[in-house]
Amino acid sequence: MSANDLEARLVAVEAKLAHHSDLEAIRDLMYEYGFAFDEDRFDDFANCFTENATGRYHPFAPGFSGRQEILDFCHRLRDEDSLPRLEMVIHYTVSPIIEIDGDSASGRWNWIAPCTVKRANGDRVAAWQFGRYDVQYARTSDGWKIQHQTTAYFKVFEHLEGWVRQPMMSLLS
Predict the structure, then answer these.
(1) Which fold has domain 3-165?
(2) Domain extent listing, the chain
(3) Is the per-residue pLDDT at 37 higher than 90?
(4) What pLDDT is recorded for position 171?
């Protein structure tokens, strides 16, 4: 093997290692996103986003722009005076498809989240949420961050009813 061949192989291995390091960093970012929200560490949650991040949590938040609106949304979901209120949630973020292009990346993730919801009438219910995140990422001086995120809710249903009999529960009743 010539020195040129060895150099080319080394460059290829370094590129592959950098790619896998980026994949792991993006996965870690999304895991921190879930843990931070679940543990009410909303400043850490907002720090998963760029300063000027945009997105939406349809149908619960039609749109947000910037970290302050992200924080406002988090506090609104957990505020004692807000109903319906998300009292407890555990995010399971799975099945990522991540594509990296230089300092930007995109990702699709399925998610499942068992939760406790306090409805507008005061009743507390155990519920399940299923959905998908469509995310655009940006590499920043602080590592990978979420630049834009769209959260789609496919199913939200009471635990005992299941998704067949109750495809989308009413949180407002």
Answers:
(1) Nuclear Transport Factor 2; Chain: A, (3.10.450)
(2) 3-165
(3) yes
(4) 56
